Amino acid sequence: MKTAYLDAFSGLSGDMIVGAILDCGADFGEFERAIESLQIAGYVLSTRRKTLSGISALKFDVAVTEPQPERHVGEIRALIDSSPLTASVKHRAISIFEVLAQAEAKIHNTTPDRVHFHEVGAVDSIIDIVGTAWGLEQLGVGDVIVSPLPMGNGFARSQHGVIPVPAPATAELLAGFPLKIGDGAHEMVTPTGAAVVRALARPAEIPLKFEVEKIGYGAGTRELQDRPNVLRIMLGRERDAFDSDEMIEISANIDDLSPQIYDHLMQRLFDAGARDVTLTPTMMKKSRPAVTLGVIAETASRDALAEIIFAETSTIGLRFHAVARLKLHREIHEVETRWGKVRVKTSGANGGAPTTISPEYDDCRRIAAKHKVALRVVMDEARDAARTPKSVS
């Protein structure tokens, strides 16, 4: 699998991402058929070449021909789930909408399921987001990294009235990413572009050791005075042996909570964005047995996770600190077994053969129950299939 580097010196938006993906070689005819499978109407897709500062870029356009309803994230999820798109495309697309719903809910003091999408719920934004997920799969992209993002300045108009640049949703989504505040005379990163970054990408380590295989340029709509308004996508492979990132660790010692609560607590923490949750037996003062709750998460998720811990446990204080992680490069594939498709996670040093192959437990359990076959047999077959390149998608 390849890595896509979003070189966003002029920011990014949904149409710029799709344009760059198509310029990298994703087939426009197949793209149209993928979008048609969503069973939405009232649009016309087109592409054209556009030259900015001597750079030939692809401009992707969605012309909306019919009024569109405001949609909830649940309606959009159902629309995507009912399509014949692959499971990995559905997962990526839905994850983009879900992080956007969470950001909008925080800004408007509501819950994600009650958020009405305006601009981003329109048919053109749905096409941009689903098209991005589809295009990354077509190009064989397993990992996405992004450059520091220019955030622009000034004000913009929205359905809610005049708002500052960057838009509140954009700022919320990009918490934890390297940003260049005040760089650019206009809105440089749209909420759609920010949601793609939050859901799928991680900050690039600059300077970046990167072996470039292909480059695509996606053109934006606005004419900028100080730079070409294009997004450059570089496809290739990172040369560092290991992946790394920065997280925070939240912990608390708890000595008076019913053990039955912990399962519910862990699920809530994972649903809210925790990367890992652990429970470790410990001894507190006066030899009281207790449990140390440990949570690894992105910095931007700290307050949301803290609220859950305070609500669900008896602790009255939390500790947290930054942690650096060194990890094997991970990719998720779908493999064919005699009972159907199974997601498999492979990990290993960048550029090397996988050192571990882990079938997705929930997929294997579902197949085992449906076909009345031993779970370990399903997992063994999925693991064997992952070692056969032709069976991996």
Shape: globular
N-to-C span? 10 Å
Q: Round the Cα radius of gyration to an integer and report it.
A: 22 Å
Strand order of the largest sheet: 11-6-1-13-12
Question: Roughly what is the average pLDDT, rounded to an integer?
Answer: 91
In short:
With 393 residues, the protein is an alpha+beta fold. 33% of the residues lie in helices and 34% in strands. Helix 1 runs parallel beside helix 5, helix 3 (73-81) runs antiparallel to helix 4 and helix 8 (259-271) runs antiparallel to helix 9.
Tell me what the structure shows.
With 393 residues, this protein is of the alpha+beta class. The chain folds into 3 domains: 2-238, no CATH class; 244-327, Transcriptional regulatory protein pf0864 domain like (Alpha-Beta Plaits, 2-Layer Sandwich); 329-391, mk0293 like domain (Ubiquitin-like (UB roll)). 33% of the residues lie in helices and 34% in strands. The chain contains 11 helices and 20 strands. The strands form 7 sheets. Strands 11-6-1-13-12 form a 5-stranded mixed sheet. Strands 15-16-14-17 form a 4-stranded antiparallel sheet. Strands 18-19-20 form a 3-stranded antiparallel sheet. A hairpin with a 3-residue loop joins β15 (276-284) and β16 (288-297). α3 runs antiparallel to α4 and α4 (87-107) packs across α5 (123-138). The longest helix has 21 residues, at 87-107. The radius of gyration is 22 Å and the shape is globular. The mean pLDDT is 91.
